[in-house]
Amino acid sequence: MLDAIIHQRRFDKTDDQELWIVSQDISKAFDSIDLNMLKLALIRLHIPPLLIKFIINLFTRRNNKIITHYGDTSGYRVRVGIDQGEIISPLLWVIYSDPLLTTLNREACDPFLLKSSALLDYSPIEYEQHNLPVSHITFMDDSTLIASSKRGIEDRLSITAEFYTLNNTQANSAKYILLSSEQFSQTVVFDLFPSPLIPTCTLTLKALALSKSFRFLGV
User: Which residues form the Reverse transcriptase domain (predicted)?
Assistant: First the structure.
């Protein structure tokens, strides 16, 4: 979908939307999960209480060891997070981040409209135009914010910054990547919304042109 969005903005001469893309860097996503917030996220989806208790107990008062070439290390107490190698962990991360994704879909302003056409009739040829509003593309811990204005990106950056602070998620803003159809090869300052949960009210990123490549989903 990201490739389709960039292609539309670069080559569709009828599209006059701005395009702003910010690829976020989230480190140690599973390790930073707060079990209390995970429990609230499970309750939000009306998961049965007994199942919630079972899931939380899987990651409570547990010890880990590290397998090395010279044998296992001594056990240590795990105080936060869930194990990345557990089968259930990817599903729990999706549940954990769902409140953020729901808010971005519902409240984020100035989404980018991805156009598509559906053929209705062959004779005469008739098309129906559809517009899909896109505010983010998220897969597991890979988060890409998308907007049709600088204000829209500021809105998304503010929402995600609050969520990351509340949920102990480590986002490295120094590794954020900005692509813009408007201000490439320039330093752009984003003003985040005032909030006690946001320690820094501004974020400065250097914009790349839409023709530039960047890592997406680890590629």
Answer: 1-219
